[in-house]
Amino acid sequence: MTWTESGTTGTVTADDGVRLWASGSGRGTPLVMCHGGPGLWDMFEDVAGLLGGLATTVRWDQRGCGRSERCAGPWTTERFVADLDAVRAHYAPDRTALLGHSWGAQLALSYALAHPERVSALVYVAGIGIGPDADWRGAYEENLLARIGEHPERRARWRELTDRPQRTDEEEREWAVLQWTAEFEDRERAPEHAERMADPWFGINTECSKALNAERRRAWGTPELYAACQALDLPVVIVDGERDIRPRSAVDSLERALPQVRRVVLPDAGHLPWVEDPDGFREAVATVL
Predict the structure, then answer these.
(1) Same structural domain for residues 191 and 209?
(2) Fewer CB within 10 Å: C terminus or N terminus of the chain?
């Protein structure tokens, strides 16, 4: 395949026939990126531009999400790993570097554990480690409420929408933007950044989100997972925004397990570190490309 700076956009067909939206651009080492969620869509357009001189970046929407074909699942890590393998095979027939953000960091790690021979390096961004939810969930909820609570009217509206049994699509977008304002260290620009995350808006696949989060609660935090990470013979860079509302200490278990790991903490960034420290983020990713 011939790559150009302007890139290519189309679909990749998974082995069960589901069509996945994908886009490749840039030049250099292939870097397939896995967006957060679960149940969201690719928000890496800025990252692709930031890294375009370092790598051929591949963005994609996970099954049933964003611009990918709406389907009935299945909503399992095994299925999503197979989808990622279809994207990888289409854009990088040999090996690729992987970058995953938040839930996407878990997916990228799961893929690397399943297919280490197909991965050249892993960039693990703003994940929650390999321990149980107890390592991070309580502190995350406390920090979320504190940040949203900085603006009483915003908090009241967020609470009203959170407690509503059903939301319209417009209300779902409003709720998401209100919640996403908590993800940024720069509190003045947080509403602007959160609005940008929701533009374009494709709707949250809540069924997908609930199923994959439930699977994580069952499967994460096991001795088997820790042992598998200890055996992962790949260069890994962990990139954290120090001001992420998910406690960064939750990632310590993963850092301790990995044999080839470097950790970069960006002090003035939150959950989307490339937004608030693009230079630091680019430099961190460049270390493994």
Answers:
(1) no
(2) N
What pLDDT score does 43 carry? 97
Last residue of a domain, one of 182, 197, 212: 197
What are the structure tokens assigned to 44, written together?
């890496």
Instruction: Supply the pLDDT for residue 47.
Output: 98
pLDDT in tens, 237-257: 999 999 999 999 999 999 999
- Per-residue pLDDT tens over the stretch 122-169: 999 999 999 999 999 999 999 999 999 999 999 999 999 999 999 999
Q: Are 22 and 35 in contact (CB under 8 A)?
A: no
Contact between 216 and 238 (Cβ < 8 Å): no
Asked whether residue 115 falls in the same domain as residue 240, the answer is yes
